[in-house]
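Annotated sample (chain length 65).
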Amino acid sequence: MSEHLVVVSKIKKHIKQKSGMNTSATVMDELSKIVEKEIDKAIQSAQNDNRKTVMDRDFNHTSGF
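Output written by the structure step:
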């Protein structure tokens, strides 16, 4: 994936503040994949409800997190 769907600096800062750990560059690719999959599920949920707007409730499903 060439485009990150997460703000790299904010993710790195959060990890550093929570744990004192550094963040591998490859983490951003994996997080972007997770975000993309969740967005796709939310789009499907909105489409199933015949809506043209993705809403917060479209992310309220069992995702295993």
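Annotation: The mean pLDDT is 90.
Annotation: The first helix runs from residue 8 to 19.
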